Amino acid sequence: MDIVIVADYQELSEIAAGYVIAHMKKKPRTVLGLPTGSTPEGLYSRLVEEHRKGGLDFSTVTTFNLDEYLGLGPDHEQSYRHYMQKRLFGRININEEHTHIPDGLARDTDRCCRDYEHLIESVGGIDLQVLGIGRDGHIGFNEPGGSLASRTRVVVLAPETVEDNSRFFSSVDEVPQLAVSMGLGTISDARRCVLLACGEQKAEAIEQSVEGPVTAMVPASVLQMHPETTLIVDEAAASRLRRKNYYRAVQEKREHIAQIN
Ligand code: F6R
Fold first, then answer.
1. What is the pTM of this model?
2. What is the reported pLDDT for 193?
3. Fewer beta carbons within 10 angstroms: which end of the chain, N or C?
4. 164 given a catalytic annotation
Protein backbone atom coordinates (compact mmCIF):
# COMPACT_ATOMS: atom_id res chain seq x y z
CA MET A 1 0.00 0.00 0.00
CA ASP A 2 1.10 3.49 -0.75
CA ILE A 3 0.34 5.82 2.17
CA VAL A 4 0.11 9.56 1.66
CA ILE A 5 -0.38 11.65 4.79
CA VAL A 6 -1.79 15.10 4.13
CA ALA A 7 -2.32 18.12 6.35
CA ASP A 8 -6.06 18.48 6.19
CA TYR A 9 -9.34 17.69 4.47
CA GLN A 10 -8.82 20.25 1.75
CA GLU A 11 -5.51 18.74 0.70
CA LEU A 12 -7.02 15.25 0.87
CA SER A 13 -9.82 16.31 -1.48
CA GLU A 14 -7.37 18.02 -3.86
CA ILE A 15 -5.12 14.98 -4.12
CA ALA A 16 -8.04 12.58 -4.50
CA ALA A 17 -9.44 14.76 -7.29
CA GLY A 18 -5.98 14.72 -8.89
CA TYR A 19 -6.11 10.91 -9.08
CA VAL A 20 -9.55 10.90 -10.66
CA ILE A 21 -8.68 13.65 -13.15
CA ALA A 22 -5.40 11.94 -14.12
CA HIS A 23 -7.32 8.73 -14.84
CA MET A 24 -9.90 10.56 -16.92
CA LYS A 25 -7.24 12.36 -18.95
CA LYS A 26 -5.31 9.15 -19.58
CA LYS A 27 -8.42 7.18 -20.44
CA PRO A 28 -11.51 9.24 -21.34
CA ARG A 29 -13.69 6.11 -21.13
CA THR A 30 -12.63 5.59 -17.52
CA VAL A 31 -14.80 3.44 -15.27
CA LEU A 32 -14.95 4.87 -11.75
CA GLY A 33 -16.10 3.12 -8.57
CA LEU A 34 -17.53 5.67 -6.16
CA PRO A 35 -18.43 5.92 -2.47
CA THR A 36 -20.89 8.15 -0.64
CA GLY A 37 -20.62 9.54 2.91
CA SER A 38 -19.02 12.69 4.28
CA THR A 39 -15.45 11.95 3.24
CA PRO A 40 -15.79 12.21 -0.58
CA GLU A 41 -17.88 15.40 -0.52
CA GLY A 42 -14.78 17.60 -0.97
CA LEU A 43 -13.58 15.40 -3.83
CA TYR A 44 -16.94 15.72 -5.60
CA SER A 45 -16.94 19.52 -5.13
CA ARG A 46 -13.46 19.69 -6.67
CA LEU A 47 -14.56 17.58 -9.66
CA VAL A 48 -17.60 19.79 -10.20
CA GLU A 49 -15.37 22.89 -10.01
CA GLU A 50 -12.93 21.37 -12.48
CA HIS A 51 -15.83 20.57 -14.83
CA ARG A 52 -17.25 24.09 -14.61
CA LYS A 53 -14.01 26.04 -14.77
CA GLY A 54 -11.64 23.69 -16.53
CA GLY A 55 -14.06 21.86 -18.83
CA LEU A 56 -13.38 18.44 -17.32
CA ASP A 57 -15.42 16.14 -19.56
CA PHE A 58 -17.47 13.32 -18.03
CA SER A 59 -19.41 12.46 -21.19
CA THR A 60 -17.54 9.20 -21.76
CA VAL A 61 -17.09 8.23 -18.08
CA THR A 62 -18.97 5.32 -16.51
CA THR A 63 -19.55 5.03 -12.76
CA PHE A 64 -20.51 2.29 -10.33
CA ASN A 65 -21.41 3.16 -6.77
CA LEU A 66 -20.38 0.83 -4.00
CA ASP A 67 -23.71 0.47 -2.31
CA GLU A 68 -27.32 1.47 -1.71
CA TYR A 69 -29.70 1.11 1.21
CA LEU A 70 -32.36 -1.52 0.65
CA GLY A 71 -35.83 -0.01 0.80
CA LEU A 72 -34.88 3.52 -0.30
CA GLY A 73 -35.83 4.67 -3.79
CA PRO A 74 -33.98 7.33 -5.80
CA ASP A 75 -36.30 10.08 -4.55
CA HIS A 76 -35.59 9.38 -0.91
CA GLU A 77 -33.32 12.13 0.42
CA GLN A 78 -31.01 9.63 2.11
CA SER A 79 -30.73 7.22 -0.79
CA TYR A 80 -27.29 7.09 -2.33
CA ARG A 81 -28.76 7.77 -5.77
CA HIS A 82 -30.12 11.03 -4.38
CA TYR A 83 -26.76 11.81 -2.75
CA MET A 84 -24.85 11.24 -6.00
CA GLN A 85 -27.34 13.21 -8.07
CA LYS A 86 -27.12 16.19 -5.73
CA ARG A 87 -23.36 16.24 -5.21
CA LEU A 88 -21.98 15.05 -8.54
CA PHE A 89 -24.11 13.60 -11.34
CA GLY A 90 -26.57 16.49 -11.51
CA ARG A 91 -23.72 19.01 -11.69
CA ILE A 92 -21.52 17.53 -14.44
CA ASN A 93 -22.04 16.38 -18.04
CA ILE A 94 -22.23 12.67 -17.28
CA ASN A 95 -24.69 10.52 -19.22
CA GLU A 96 -27.18 9.30 -16.60
CA GLU A 97 -27.30 5.92 -18.31
CA HIS A 98 -23.61 5.50 -17.53
CA THR A 99 -24.16 5.97 -13.79
CA HIS A 100 -24.89 2.77 -11.88
CA ILE A 101 -26.07 2.33 -8.31
CA PRO A 102 -27.65 -0.86 -6.95
CA ASP A 103 -31.45 -0.63 -7.02
CA GLY A 104 -32.62 -0.06 -3.44
CA LEU A 105 -36.15 -1.05 -4.42
CA ALA A 106 -35.25 -4.28 -6.25
CA ARG A 107 -37.77 -7.06 -5.64
CA ASP A 108 -35.43 -9.78 -6.83
CA THR A 109 -32.31 -8.77 -4.91
CA ASP A 110 -30.27 -11.83 -5.95
CA ARG A 111 -30.80 -10.95 -9.56
CA CYS A 112 -30.06 -7.27 -8.93
CA CYS A 113 -26.71 -8.25 -7.37
CA ARG A 114 -25.84 -10.67 -10.18
CA ASP A 115 -26.74 -8.09 -12.81
CA TYR A 116 -24.56 -5.49 -11.09
CA GLU A 117 -21.55 -7.80 -11.26
CA HIS A 118 -22.23 -8.58 -14.93
CA LEU A 119 -22.58 -4.92 -15.74
CA ILE A 120 -19.20 -4.12 -14.19
CA GLU A 121 -17.67 -6.99 -16.14
CA SER A 122 -19.35 -5.94 -19.39
CA VAL A 123 -17.64 -2.53 -19.38
CA GLY A 124 -14.23 -4.10 -18.75
CA GLY A 125 -14.06 -3.66 -14.95
CA ILE A 126 -13.41 -0.69 -12.71
CA ASP A 127 -10.31 1.39 -13.47
CA LEU A 128 -10.26 3.47 -10.30
CA GLN A 129 -12.18 2.59 -7.16
CA VAL A 130 -12.50 5.41 -4.63
CA LEU A 131 -13.27 4.28 -1.07
CA GLY A 132 -14.10 5.70 2.34
CA ILE A 133 -13.75 3.69 5.55
CA GLY A 134 -16.05 3.15 8.51
CA ARG A 135 -14.92 3.25 12.15
CA ASP A 136 -15.18 -0.55 12.17
CA GLY A 137 -12.96 -0.83 9.09
CA HIS A 138 -15.78 -1.38 6.60
CA ILE A 139 -15.42 -0.40 2.95
CA GLY A 140 -18.60 -0.17 0.90
CA PHE A 141 -21.00 -1.81 3.35
CA ASN A 142 -18.73 -4.81 3.90
CA GLU A 143 -18.91 -5.15 7.64
CA PRO A 144 -16.45 -7.12 9.84
CA GLY A 145 -16.73 -10.88 9.60
CA GLY A 146 -17.74 -11.19 5.94
CA SER A 147 -15.78 -12.99 3.25
CA LEU A 148 -12.66 -11.35 1.86
CA ALA A 149 -13.73 -12.70 -1.54
CA SER A 150 -17.38 -11.57 -1.38
CA ARG A 151 -19.25 -10.27 -4.43
CA THR A 152 -22.18 -7.85 -4.69
CA ARG A 153 -24.88 -9.03 -2.28
CA VAL A 154 -27.38 -8.03 0.39
CA VAL A 155 -25.65 -7.16 3.67
CA VAL A 156 -26.79 -6.42 7.21
CA LEU A 157 -25.36 -3.19 8.58
CA ALA A 158 -23.39 -3.38 11.84
CA PRO A 159 -24.96 -1.52 14.80
CA GLU A 160 -21.96 0.87 14.80
CA THR A 161 -22.62 1.76 11.15
CA VAL A 162 -26.34 2.27 11.77
CA GLU A 163 -25.43 4.58 14.65
CA ASP A 164 -22.85 6.51 12.59
CA ASN A 165 -25.23 6.94 9.67
CA SER A 166 -28.14 8.01 11.90
CA ARG A 167 -26.72 11.55 11.70
CA PHE A 168 -28.29 11.79 8.24
CA PHE A 169 -31.75 10.57 9.37
CA SER A 170 -34.19 12.08 11.86
CA SER A 171 -33.79 9.10 14.17
CA VAL A 172 -31.71 5.93 14.41
CA ASP A 173 -34.88 3.86 13.83
CA GLU A 174 -35.16 5.27 10.32
CA VAL A 175 -31.76 4.00 9.20
CA PRO A 176 -32.24 0.92 6.98
CA GLN A 177 -30.60 -2.18 8.43
CA LEU A 178 -30.01 -3.77 5.02
CA ALA A 179 -28.11 -2.65 1.96
CA VAL A 180 -26.80 -3.97 -1.34
CA SER A 181 -23.02 -3.66 -1.46
CA MET A 182 -20.26 -4.57 -3.83
CA GLY A 183 -18.19 -7.26 -2.13
CA LEU A 184 -14.56 -7.15 -1.09
CA GLY A 185 -13.81 -9.42 -4.06
CA THR A 186 -15.57 -6.97 -6.39
CA ILE A 187 -13.59 -4.06 -4.93
CA SER A 188 -10.31 -6.00 -5.13
CA ASP A 189 -10.86 -6.55 -8.87
CA ALA A 190 -10.55 -2.80 -9.53
CA ARG A 191 -7.30 -1.97 -11.28
CA ARG A 192 -6.52 0.78 -8.78
CA CYS A 193 -7.97 1.73 -5.38
CA VAL A 194 -7.75 5.01 -3.50
CA LEU A 195 -8.95 4.99 0.09
CA LEU A 196 -9.67 8.30 1.81
CA ALA A 197 -9.84 8.79 5.57
CA CYS A 198 -10.00 11.86 7.65
CA GLY A 199 -10.34 12.57 11.37
CA GLU A 200 -9.29 10.97 14.62
CA GLN A 201 -12.36 8.70 14.71
CA LYS A 202 -10.85 6.78 11.75
CA ALA A 203 -7.37 6.41 13.30
CA GLU A 204 -7.91 2.96 14.78
CA ALA A 205 -9.47 1.56 11.60
CA ILE A 206 -6.57 2.95 9.56
CA GLU A 207 -3.97 1.52 11.91
CA GLN A 208 -5.58 -1.92 11.80
CA SER A 209 -6.12 -1.84 8.04
CA VAL A 210 -2.54 -0.80 7.25
CA GLU A 211 -0.39 -2.30 9.97
CA GLY A 212 -2.55 -5.13 11.31
CA PRO A 213 -3.08 -8.60 9.85
CA VAL A 214 -5.27 -9.16 6.80
CA THR A 215 -8.51 -10.30 8.36
CA ALA A 216 -12.21 -10.31 7.59
CA MET A 217 -12.67 -8.59 10.96
CA VAL A 218 -11.10 -5.47 9.43
CA PRO A 219 -12.52 -5.48 5.91
CA ALA A 220 -10.26 -2.69 4.59
CA SER A 221 -7.21 -4.81 5.45
CA VAL A 222 -7.98 -6.78 2.26
CA LEU A 223 -6.40 -3.82 0.43
CA GLN A 224 -2.98 -4.98 1.69
CA MET A 225 -3.34 -7.70 -0.95
CA HIS A 226 -4.12 -5.20 -3.72
CA PRO A 227 -1.09 -4.25 -5.82
CA GLU A 228 -2.24 -0.71 -6.67
CA THR A 229 -3.78 0.85 -3.60
CA THR A 230 -3.12 4.33 -2.27
CA LEU A 231 -4.36 5.56 1.09
CA ILE A 232 -4.78 9.30 1.44
CA VAL A 233 -5.19 10.17 5.11
CA ASP A 234 -4.98 13.34 7.15
CA GLU A 235 -2.69 13.65 10.18
CA ALA A 236 -5.50 12.76 12.60
CA ALA A 237 -6.49 9.57 10.78
CA ALA A 238 -2.79 8.65 10.53
CA SER A 239 -2.08 9.40 14.21
CA ARG A 240 -2.01 5.75 15.36
CA LEU A 241 0.26 4.41 12.62
CA ARG A 242 3.42 3.00 14.18
CA ARG A 243 5.77 3.29 11.20
CA LYS A 244 6.84 6.90 10.93
CA ASN A 245 8.35 7.05 7.47
CA TYR A 246 5.19 7.35 5.39
CA TYR A 247 5.27 10.10 2.83
CA ARG A 248 3.99 13.44 3.97
CA ALA A 249 2.85 14.33 0.47
CA VAL A 250 2.79 12.93 -3.04
CA GLN A 251 5.47 15.44 -4.03
CA GLU A 252 7.80 14.15 -1.32
CA LYS A 253 7.49 10.65 -2.75
CA ARG A 254 8.23 11.85 -6.28
CA GLU A 255 11.32 13.72 -5.04
CA HIS A 256 12.52 10.63 -3.18
CA ILE A 257 12.18 8.44 -6.28
CA ALA A 258 13.91 11.08 -8.42
CA GLN A 259 16.86 11.12 -5.98
CA ILE A 260 17.23 7.34 -6.10
CA ASN A 261 17.20 7.40 -9.88
C1 F6R B 1 -20.65 4.44 1.46
C2 F6R B 1 -19.42 3.71 1.77
C3 F6R B 1 -18.97 3.62 3.21
C4 F6R B 1 -18.38 4.96 3.68
C5 F6R B 1 -17.95 4.86 5.14
C6 F6R B 1 -17.37 6.16 5.65
O7 F6R B 1 -20.90 4.40 0.09
O8 F6R B 1 -18.80 3.18 0.91
O9 F6R B 1 -18.00 2.61 3.31
O10 F6R B 1 -17.30 5.29 2.88
O11 F6R B 1 -19.04 4.51 5.94
O12 F6R B 1 -18.36 7.14 5.68
P13 F6R B 1 -18.00 8.66 6.01
O14 F6R B 1 -17.21 9.17 4.89
O15 F6R B 1 -19.35 9.34 6.11
O16 F6R B 1 -17.26 8.66 7.30
1. 0.94
2. 98
3. C
4. no
